[in-house]
Amino acid sequence: MKNMKRFAAFSVAAVLAVSMMAGCGDDKKDKAEGSEAAGAGEETFLIGGIGPVTGAAASYGTSVKQGAEIAIKEINDAGGVKVGDTTYKFALEFADDEASEDKAVQAYNTVMDKGANAIMGCVTSGACIAIVDQTYQDGILQVTPSGSAEGCIANDNAFRICFSDPEQGKAMADYAIDTMGLKKIAVIYNAADEYSTGLQKAFEEEVKAKGGEIVASEAFNTNDVEFNTQLTTIKGTDAEAIYVPAYYQDATYITKQAKDMGMTLQFLGSDGWDGVLDTVSDASTVEGCVFSSPFCATVDDADVKKFVDAYNEAYKATPDQFAADAYDTVYTFKAAMEEAGSIESADMIEAMTKITVSGMTGDEITFDASGAAVKEVKFVEVKDGAYQYKAE
């Protein structure tokens, strides 16, 4: 649960942030990404984005950065955000954290030095947890688009757009047993990663609670690329499926090696699987896999199509759920500013549990007292080499 004590640092930090904005002047506007500089009579609201744009997890951070830029352009083109008598245009300063805890702290300090009014990040759970106490001490609103570990929203000022690890782990177990009819499931998880272990624990507990059986629970470590030992153990069981609560890089290796071993088990995944079709050399290795995700670019929806088209035009790519999460994060800042009638973090934080956001990852996203987004967990299937929502 969150520490619900209010603290004066919010207001102080907000005043300092506004002062820093004034001091930075045109220099900040020139450096900010994702929007044009504010015109005469307008002010800039600077979003400090933090995530990996280099390294093994670069796909996630790049998607978040680009999804935010689409929302920023959309809002700015529509006239910006009216708060009292002032109109604000959004700008984005995005710092690379390489999905590293140490680099995340450096990136946070960088965007704060630029005068950030709110923090979008971090993208990965470990990096997000590394800065969460510092953002609390600084009293700045923090919304992570995709940091799903419980520790990412440990404090009053921190919120998330994505599902929590326990939430989606439990939901996948329910779906596997109740909808897919699976009873005997093996698990391969990263023992060194908060995201993976949080999902693994919740999934295994729910499978057992519903009368299913975890026939094998095999661990690996970050940067492992050989999974023959884990797969051999699972092959010797009567498993009907393998749940891999991990990122798409790990899923790429595991599914390929399983196929090479002649294994044809159903694969289940978490939202970190989104993007896996871009990393596999043979799409058949993930054909039929099902993973939890709040967004699917192929869904027949006018707003989704508009977002997908804008993203494709700007980046010559199809947005994934990380891009969609970031898009919704920007609209969350907008809603909080409008509800608060202020850009001070203390006021926006107070407003967060009062807003409703209609976005790419939910029609009516709200936030509970813990800072978690309240929305439906959905499931995506890879079918004929493409993503589609899984029919229930």
TrEMBL record:
The keyword ATP-binding does not apply. The keyword NADP does not apply. Residues 1-22 form the signal peptide. One of its GO terms (biological process) is amino acid transport. Keywords: Amino-acid transport, Signal, Transport. Belongs to the leucine-binding protein family. This is Branched-chain amino acid transport system substrate-binding protein.
